[in-house]
Amino acid sequence: MARDAAARDTETMDVETIDIVFPDLLGLLHGKTVPTQRREHPTHYAITVMVQGLDLGFLELEPYSTSVGFPDMEASIDVGSTRPWLQGRQRALAWTHFADGRPLPLDSRRQLATICQRWAALGYQPKAGYEMEFFLLSSREPLTKLPVPEHRVYGIGAGADPTGTIEAITAAAQLADLRVEGVNSEFTPSQVEVSLEYQDALTAADCALLFRELARQVAQQHGIDVTFMARPFADAVGNGMHVNLSLATPDGSNAFYAQDDAEGLSEVARWFVAGLLHHHEALAAFAAPTVNSYKRLTPGMLSGYWANWGWDNRLATIRIPGQRGPSTRVEHRMGDGSASPHLLTAALLAAGLHGVQERMALADPQIGDADSAPNTDRHAPTSLPDALAALQADQELCAFFEPDLIAVYTELKSRECERWAQAVTDWEQREYSRVY
Ligand code: GLU
Ligand code: MG
């Protein structure tokens, strides 16, 4: 009885808390839950060494290694980012600083904000909207797709998910103001796409980041799971995170639209696309950031392999959808579900900005099937080590970023590559142990 009473008390207790979170360079959230009245308190984090690889190892690079002795870091709440969250909580994103107030160069949100400010100096506000693909899983180990007996492409309801989890995810995302635009099942049973409305690029990237976590949490409450990893199954396509980009002018019009152009596309948009193509190889380091990403980023996967663009062509890396006027946009299709939305968007906006600064000429569009008849021989790197090398070789793109961010990111990702190189996979065991 006493236990019941205590449980009842806990349920009715009005404990107001806020999760103060920030993303690391891998696109994963960290943070603390604090009582709401302490939300403006500057120091919520005990140690600085928060940028860890998936191996949880410490960095070797100064001043982020153990040699600095884990001093405090500060997180100041980005008040405008506060939103309702699950279970009646609140959630807000934070800016991160060293204890002496200097901005932390590894802050991926600030990196995106900085590139948006450079666009603002030219009179443009970047806008972004993300298409989030993921699989519903009935089991994590072994990784198993949720059976969907009534599956059909662009299915809804039981045609997408017999467990009702998608509806719960959508409802929770709406509650959290993540601005769901549409939901549908993909070609493969259990794969789903949720598109998020376009809005200013930083808020949009925040929504994409939060959506991944929210979807997993809601699914787990429904007894299933999700994965956004790039290519979870050999017998199915991968999970894209396509980024739709446009630029708003101070009067609110869309700078990618040109009424007097035969195709309705402005010069700025063409330079922007040329910039994306100019940096195609290096962009993979952010768009396809895991070892597994390169099982998706191949021809035949609609995944942004070739350095090309096309008019409403899903086989080209950059698709210019047919809508014009306020909906004129550029869809970059290389990103996968393991990308940091902030770093990827920062990289795309940097590449586009470079194109505009240099008034880069745009090549001819890809016509028809890019995989059987590509109009270019330039393509994405075929492995993560090659993508990291392409990033390091592309000093023009790196110059838009904090040097420390590039150094730490490449160290984290190189470590990931080393672990992969050392791994003995179940495929190798199956293939060779029988016969050798
Ligand atoms: N699943 C594809 C990808 O990995 C995209 C399919 C689509 O166009 O929605 O990017
Ligand atoms: Mg899709």
Describe the structure.
With 436 residues, the protein is α+β, with helices and mostly antiparallel strands. It has two domains: 94 residues, Ubiquitin-like (UB roll) (Roll); 289 residues, 2-Layer Sandwich (Creatine Kinase, Chain A, domain 2), CATH 3.30.590.10. 31% of the residues lie in helices and 19% in strands. Strands 6, 7, 8, 9, 10, 11, 12, 13, 14 and 15 form a ten-stranded mixed β-sheet that branches. Strands 1, 2, 3, 4 and 5 form a five-stranded mixed β-sheet that branches. A hairpin with a 4-residue loop joins β6 and β7. It starts with a helix and ends with a helix. The structure holds glutamic acid and magnesium ion (MG). The site of magnesium ion has 4 residues, from β6.
Name the hetero compounds present. Answer: glutamic acid, magnesium ion
Note the overall shape: globular
Helix content: 25-40%
Query: Main sheet?
Result: 10 strands, mixed
